[in-house]
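Supplementary Methods, section 5.1.

A reviewer requested that the exact input to the structure prediction be made available. We therefore reproduce it here, unchanged from the version used in the analyses.
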Amino acid sequence: MALPPHDAVLVIKLGALGDFVQALGPFAAIRRHHADARVTLLTTAPYEELAKASGFFDDIWTGGRPATADIGGWLELRRRLRGGGFGRVYDLQTSDRSSFYYRLFWPGPAPEWSGTARGCSHPHANPDRDFMHTMDRQAEQLSMAGIAEVPVPDPSWAEADISRFSLSGRFALLAPGGALHRPGKRWPAGNFGQLAKTLMDQGLLPVLVGSASEAPLMAEIKAQCEEARDLSGQTGLLDLVALGRGAVASVGNDTGPMHLFSATGCRTVVLFSHDSDPALCGQRGAAVTIIRRQPLDAISVAEVVDGMGL
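The structure derived from this sequence is encoded token-by-token as follows.
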């Protein structure tokens, strides 16, 4: 099923961060399988830097999610898809949106397509696909398209200079944020504050990571542990990989950065409520501990410290 040399291949992965990290293994497998092809990634702007650093792609398009009313954006996306000369498409997003992109090739011939678009040449034909872990589902999808071996995510190629953060001693990463519209996925800030104090007592500097919008949350934690370092809004994705490599451990809610930390091999503790299912989307790695309770505040600080193996 390999394409002839010099053909063009398109990979679709729009986000979110955790899903993008879990697609790093499939990206590597596709690149290896199509070693002589020109491989393009269709994604969104937040993942461009990470995708470029990976070396898996010859081109990266970031206009992968035009708004519903953005007629110009849809026309531009259709023009690029139809003009790309793609012999095969791997839709790793497999959403209703990305499946619709298959229709944008009309009325011309559609390329070979691995995904869930109706009528595509290489469908992921497993009726239980929605009950599989993301990584297992993508590996099976690629297997059905002729790619038998899919490695685990390995961002060892990622490099970043984090010396500007002046983290000269032992430190632990805390990711206390997450989607605002899903508060049930957030362990209380007070618990993170207690954890930060405990880590300081054990000689570990707590380093808080998250988006700039999470600065108020970080301030709550620092109110309990003023020594904690707040890096919210200061880190790119490559920085997070480098921080994960250097950290003694990481703790956080079920949020994107935890997927990066777990992929580096960092000892990682991820806190789950019933708002998300680790059997479907949980972080995987050589040193990952998942603790799940409902409600999330039923998880004690002592249990988290124990999970860190300190």
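The longest strand covers residues 86-91. These observations are discussed further in the main text.
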